[in-house]
Design goal:
By secondary structure, this protein is an alpha/beta fold. It has helices spanning 12-22, 39-49, 76-82, 90-98, 180-191, 205-210, 221-229, 306-327, 356-367, 386-396, 399-402, 446-462; strands at residues 27-30, 34-35, 55-58, 61-62, 68-70, 105-106, 115-118, 145-149, 156-160, 163-167, 170-173, 195-201, 234-237, 244-246, 251-262, 268-269, 275-276, 282-291, 297-298, 331-335, 344-349, 373-378, 403-410, 423-430. Strand 10 and strand 11 form a beta hairpin.
Amino acid sequence: MTYSELSQRQNPHAFLNDYLAAHPEDVLTVEDAIAADQGVTGLIYELAAQGRDEMLLCRKVDGVAVPVVSNVFASRRRIARLLDAGPESLHAAFTARAAQPLASRYVDSAPILEVVHSGADVDLATVPMLRHFASDLAPYITSGIIVAEDPDTGVGNLSYHRSMIHSPNELATSLHSRGDLWRILARYAERGEPMPVAMVIGGHPLFMLAASARVGYDVDERSIAGGLLGEPLEVVPTPKYGIAVPAWSDFVLEGTIDAAAHAAEGPFGEFSGYSSNRSTNNLIQVSTIMRRRRPILFDVEGGNTAEHLNLARIPRESEMAEKLKSRFPDVTAVHYPTSGTHFHCYVALRQRRPGQARQVMLGLLGWDPYVKTVVAVDSDIDITDDAAVLWALATHFQPHRDILTADGLPGSPLDPSSTSDGTTSRMGLDATRGPGFEGRRIEISEGALAHARKILMQNTTTGGIHA
């Protein structure tokens, strides 16, 4: 098979070029050289401070020999476009496509096979990495998706894990989520064998989104990527261990993780907004480096950025919205605000009977182990607006009757307020109006608003209001 027979829809470089052509206003291209040490991070945080969320293309990054693309997932609108949807139907579009998984398709030739180094030729200094925060111990790979396969079934798992160089052929990493990859590692440990892995850096954004999907252990996320793409993910086997990786990857690092081998890593700027040195301190022994001839570094900005949070929470929101609406049909919307990192969730509902909001909140607190606080509001509240939710909390909530708590529950080990093993407490705040609520929201007539818009438009056009 020649490259011309591969699907260009799965080529992240083609995605970048197509998006630049279709939405130039949504991409900030930086031609000036910027620093690999916090240069990209500085741009992204300054954009956010201005209320902006453009995708970032940096053509020259000092000390990094490839262009850098970041902030891809900072915009819900942009993620929705990937799924041919609008922001209002993002959850439904993600759920519908993820519910139609497609088995991967092996191909004979691929860009990721253009340059292959193995054995003594492996040097991780040739892999581009950025230092994202001054508090980070070192430059980190933040977009690395570790691919591993169950030793008995071959079912693959995709998951993100921060990684830094420990030696020329070793990466120190953290499996802090202790999810399916942790289970696969345990199965290999029971056999007395190291776990073969491949770390993918740079794939189509829908492949990257699939790596955050919340699915069962027996579901291969590579098939979820196929569902999101609308066609089978094209893959090739890695040279030594035969792990199926995307044909259009920019970099793939093949190697093993031995459950008994450890190396210190961290601190690193995590989604909580704090620098975290909580880590499982695992070690990846890299035996092969594969890359495209002209790669791009598709970076994921760390910390409490919209990109970092969206990449994980879009699948989480989609799952929770589907579960809640299926079990509780009066739920109208679910939203994880950036201000709450992964620990807060807002849910809107049409409350038809006393206690309904409590039941919904208990369901959410039980289903999502990361959520510490749920705020329930009425369906007329815009839950994408923190100010609107806080207004509902201020005017509808009474602490003595509208709060529920539970403690001693498993949460996120990266929550700096949790115990060292990640145990946390949880809270539900009922900010719905409830039965017997007395109050009428203030109103402004549409005529008055239309007249105001007309005046303001004239003011903008003429530069002043004329008496």
